[in-house]
From TrEMBL:
Protein name: ABC transporter substrate-binding protein
Originating organism: Kouleothrix aurantiaca
InterPro entries: Bact_solute-bd_prot1 (IPR050490), SBP (IPR006059)
Source superkingdom: Bacteria
């Protein structure tokens, strides 16, 4: 069991306002905070400068839309006469699909905290799913299964098999070690859409059975302080920090290492929102076994969104009803 940190926060006046928007909600339950996220998993668009230069594609900016992204991918993807793809424009893990959904102002459920029904059949949601699936069907982006077999997005980006990837800051250290010529930009959004970064990260917690809770709190609050653990982890290049003051400091922005446009991560973090995953106990089971499992058929090109999504929603609605949602 986890210890409720709320009393310690109140007693010590710990500054929870320094966390990115909605981030603490990922480690909270029923208005009680049970953990402090060490980082925030916001994604950026990584791009290989050499491959973009070769294809005559301008480097992406924070003004790019989905249309701009697709136009760039059409120039970057190299398909041989036999249909084999020599180089993909984009590689993105299928599990990140909800980024497109939330950017298009859509949602999986009518309430991500206490849902009553699936909303993936709504037009904005279907359009987002079709956009991602269309990139794969048109051979502009790698299929999720192919990406996994190729060793993941870091492997295909480093080998030049993909000119762009969408990923969080966890790839920075590896790409710098490999000496890649790359940079990052905010993820393109649809016209009239919104930025919708993931408000989640790995969290430090305290056991409810700890023998010395006061000492545990002292260490935990140091780990999550701007001059303590957060700064050390940031200087090591391991994380994009959960604390805004650390991300806005020279420790992150002027590290002296690529990417040059580190501001892209801040742009995304400033727009972190609830919606990329559920905030209720049965989310992992429902999200994994029904939603993600059903959408794999779309990412694989075995079904269209119009074929797969209504069946997914039927299963989700039955699951929610069986589990007694919405909770009173």
């Amino acid at each position: 069991m986890l210890e409720d940190l709320t009393p310690y926060i109140q007693k010590s006046s710990y500054n929870t306002g320094d966390y990115w928007p909605a981030l603490l909600e990922s480690s909270s339950y029923q208005n009680k905070i049970y953990g402090f996220p060490r980082d925030i998993g916001v994604e950026a668009l990584y791009y290989n400068k050499d491959l973009l230069d070769k294809a005559g594609v301008a480097y992406p900016t924070d003004k790019w839309t989905w249309d701009d992204l697709k136009a760039a991918l059409q120039k970057l993807s190299v398909v041989e006469a036999n249909g084999r793809v020599k180089q993909y424009g984009l590689a993105m893990e299928g599990g990140k699909w909800s980024l497109w959904l939330n950017q298009n102002k859509a949602s999986m459920l009518d309430d991500m905290r206490n849902p009553s029904k699936c909303t993936l059949t709504e037009p904005a949601a279907l359009d987002a799913i079709k956009f991602f699936a269309g990139l794969m069907n048109d051979k502009l982006a790698m299929r999720d299964a192919d990406l996994s077999q190729a060793g993941g997005d870091a492997a295909v980006f480093q080998s030049g098999q993909a000119a762009m990837i969408i990923q969080n800051s966890s790839r920075v250290s590896a790409f710098n070690t490999a000496g890649l010529k790359y940079d990052v930009a905010p993820v393109p959004i649809p016209a009239n859409g919104q930025r919708a970064a993931s408000a989640g990260g790995a969290a430090w917690v305290m056991s409810a059975k700890s023998d010395n809770k006061d000492a545990a709190w002292t260490f935990l609050s140091w780990l999550q302080s701007a001059d303590g653990g957060e700064k050390l982890y940031t200087l090591s290049g391991e994380i994009f920090p959960a604390l805004k003051t650390v991300a806005q400091s020279d420790a992150f922005l002027k590290s002296g290492s690529p990417p040059a446009n580190r501001q892209a991560f801040l742009t995304e973090a400033e727009n972190a929102k609830v919606g990329r995953f559920g905030y209720f106990p049965d989310w992992d089971e429902m999200g994994g076994s029904i939603i993600d499992s059903g959408l794999q058929k779309v990412w694989a090109g075995e079904q269209t969104a119009d074929e797969a999504v209504p069946a997914i929603c039927t299963q989700v609605d039955a699951f929610l009803k069986d589990k007694g949602y919405p909770k009173q």
